[in-house]
Amino acid sequence: MGGEAITEAAGASSGRSLLAWAPAWVKRRRRLTARDPADASRARTRRMFAASRLIVVLAVLAMAATVLSAGIGYGLARQSDERLWAEQRASLRNAVTEFRALFGQANEIDPRFVRMVEQTAGLKDLKFETDPAITDREMQPVMDAHGRIAGFFTWQKTNPMVGVVSRLIPLITGIALLLMGFAGFSLWQLRRARHVLAASEELAARAADMDKLTGLPNHAKMLELLDLNLAERAGDEVTTFALIELDGMADVNAHLGVLGSDELIVAVAARLKEALPADALCGRIGSDEFALTLTGPADVDAEAVIRAALESIARPHWIDTVVRVSAHAGFAQTPRHASTRGELTRRAELALRAAAKKGAGAVVAFTPEIDTVSADQKFIQRELPRALTANELELHYQPIVAANGGRIVGVEALLRWTHATRGPIGPAVFIPVAEQMGLMDTLGAFVLRRALSEAHRWPDLYVAVNLSPLQVRDASIVDLVRSALAESRVAPSRLMLEITEGVLIDNPDEMVKRIEDLHALGVRIALDDFGSGYSNLGYLQRFPLDKLKIDRSFVVALGNSANGGVIIQAIVALGRALGLSVLVEGVETEQQRVLLRLAGCDEMQGFLFARPAPAKAIDRLLAQTHSGSPKALTA
Ligand code: C2E
Ligand code: MG
Ligand code: MG
Which of 53-57, 67-71, 249-253, 513-517: highest mean pLDDT? Predict the structure, then answer.
């Protein structure tokens, strides 16, 4: 109600008050067309057509009226002329009779008599002839006293009205021809415009269903086609709905730019079409996501079809240079996994998420276990807000040791949730859910305040606190850190904030500013999980970081390949060259420790030294190391 009143008022003030007087159907149509500009334009074009058609009809009518009135005019003029002739004859007769009396019954016709008759009767070029030639002149016999024809009065017949109309005829014909030409031209234009409109309407209809880049059906169309597939599926047939997602498109974007990435998407779409059987339908439903539906006999191996499609995508592409892109896929089938479209797509989505976790090239069919994962998510969504207030969340700390000497130099705060009935739930599981739910602010503030309050226990150590990308993106993080430091009175230099690579890539300029603002508070910044994502040392230079935490995966690679040691050595050297302190995470074996120490890293963290543990256990560990007892921490 209120909204309508505002709209009406706004309409009136912007000079559209005329609409207020319009009938209800006009207002309704305006509201409807206002919703979709394409509809509005179509309605406008239709109105133009109707107007043009009216103009053509009017032109034809005008032409008909002109011709008709010319005909009628001619007829009337003729009648009027004939009337004139009859009158002239009558007045000739009267004049002859009258002037005969005057001039007597002489057989000779006196020329004066002729002139008088001519003037009285209003006849042009009247002559008396005894033997007139047969011409188009009018003639009237004159009798002598004996009743014999003495001769003829002849005169030039005039047709004043027909003459006038006849002079007008070329003009009228011209007007008629002009109108005819105009109507013909308008009709031709109308017909042409109708074709163009029909073609553009068809194009618009197709465009609404089509992904502009690849020409494949878009998301909405794909769902429509899936509905059709499900409706037409015979009882013994199976409908497969698969989702295919390309891997690492952020990297591809960074390397190829937007246009290059578009080219790659087009190339991938072509490969998909080429690899899929003719009866499969394929669409693009997201920037790097494709969907396909396939209905056929139960013995068709859908997984093999999808796998072949992924292999075809993975073959090298040529986009100014050789580009490789992998993909993963998840699928679900009717009737095996789902009976409705909603269930089928949701389950294919779950399978896709499971495939994403497995990595490049993975094809995962839906299984009920996957659904339990999402049930877990729902559980977390329900329970996490309660856990925050019910004191189920606490921090564990994992010691960080100096590579040289094995002394504990810091601790990393790691969030732990022990659910009353479910037991421990890992941060990697519940933190993404907290991010989705918008709970990360509360959770992050809790971690920061708790870590700083417990940092008092270990005055010689620094405390590392993980920040989620969502927290770093929000400028209010600076105020939070400032106030938490002020409340805890912990020296800012003892706080190390860990951020991840992804957040830097997304918005580099803003991140440089954010890191500078945090630095201004006196805290230090570490880049966590380095090498697990974009692995681009080049961009590191842009950010004023203090520490590089090399991801555990590099440590795992140490033992697996001969090059493992060389790679980590190179990364450590580069990190140090950039002036960063280098920490290696996930050190589990003595052999790794030795190799990493040789590589030149500054600090290490891992199960070899200590697992994350509650604050009290860290107290005990520190007490032991001071007394020189724990073996694990000494190098
Ligand atoms: P992270 O920051 O890289 O933390 C290190 C993770 O590696 C921890 O897992 C730790 O338990 C594990 N780890 C340490 N040493 C070893 C080792 O030698 N071998 C193996 N296999 N693992 C080791 P955790 O506690 O499960 O945390 C996982 C991730 O969750 C963390 O990775 C961090 O990204 C995130 N996380 C944990 N606590 C918080 C938090 O308070 N806030 C935010 N935003 N994220 C957190
Ligand atoms: Mg960390
Ligand atoms: Mg890490």
Answer: 513-517
- Tokens for 69, please give them: 């009135």
pLDDT band at 202 (very low <50, low <70, confident <90, very high): confident
Q: Nearest 5°: CA angle at 68, between 63 and 69?
A: 100
Q: Which residue has its alpha carbon closest to ligand 1 atom 41?
A: 415
Coil vs helix vs strand at 331: strand
pLDDT over threshold 80, residue 46: no
Residues 6+ apart with CB under 8 A from 362: 328, 329, 355, 356
Any bridge partners for residue 550, and if so which?
530, 584
* Nearest-CA residue for atom 19 of ligand 1: 586
Q: How far is the C-alpha of 93 from the C-alpha of 119, rounded, in Å?
A: 13
Pocket of ligand 1 (CB under 6 A): 398, 413-415, 426-428, 431, 447, 466-468, 498, 528-529, 552, 585-588, 605-607, 612
Ligand 1 centre and the CA of 619: distance in Å?
20
pLDDT at position 17 is 47
Beta strand 393-402 pairing with 603-604: antiparallel
Q: Hey, what are 207's tokens?
A: 């465009």
Write down the pLDDT at residue 562: 63
Provide the residue type at 331 as one letter.
F
Give the position, in ligand 1's atom list, of the atom nearest the Cα of 447: 41
- Average pLDDT, integer, range 458-469: 96
pLDDT at residue 316 in the model: 93
Q: Which residue has the tokens 């209003």?
A: 122
Q: How many degrees, rounded to 5, is the angle at CA 107 between CA 117 and CA 147?
A: 90
Sign, CA dihedral 468-470-473-475, equals: negative
Pairwise CA distance, residues 107 & 250, whole Å: 126
Alpha-carbon distance of 274 to 281, in angstroms, equals: 12
How far apart, in Å, are the Cα atoms of 42 and each of 45, 189, 201, 204, 436? Answer: 5, 18, 8, 11, 41
Phi and psi dihedrals of 60, rounded to 5? -65, -45
What 3-state class would DSSP assign to 146? coil
The residue nearest atom 7 of ligand 1, judged by CA position, is: 586
**DSSP states of 193-252 as a string?**
HHHHHHHHHHHHHHHHHB-TTT-SB-HHHHHHHHHHHHHH--TTEEEEEEEEEES-HHHH
Q: How many helices (H) and strands (E) does the chain have?
A: 21, 20
CA distance 66 to 72: 10
84 has a pLDDT exceeding 60: yes
Which amino acid makes up residue 191?
Answer: R
Radius of gyration of the chain (CA): 50
8 Å CB contact between 281 and 293: yes
pLDDT of 383-430, one tens digit each? 999 998 888 999 999 999 999 989 999 999 999 999 989 999 999 989
Q: Give the integer Cα–Cα distance in Å for 64 and 175.
A: 11
Dihedral of alpha carbons 576, 582, 584, 585, sign: negative
In angstroms, what CA-CA distances link 538 with 345, 500, 528? 41, 16, 16
Cis amide leading into 335 (omega within 30) = yes
pLDDT of residue 168: 85
Buried b (16+ CB within 10 A) or exposed e, 209-241: ebbeebebbbeebbbebbeebbeeeeeeebbbb
Distance 450 CA to ligand 1 centre (A): 17
Amino acid in the structure at residue 576: R
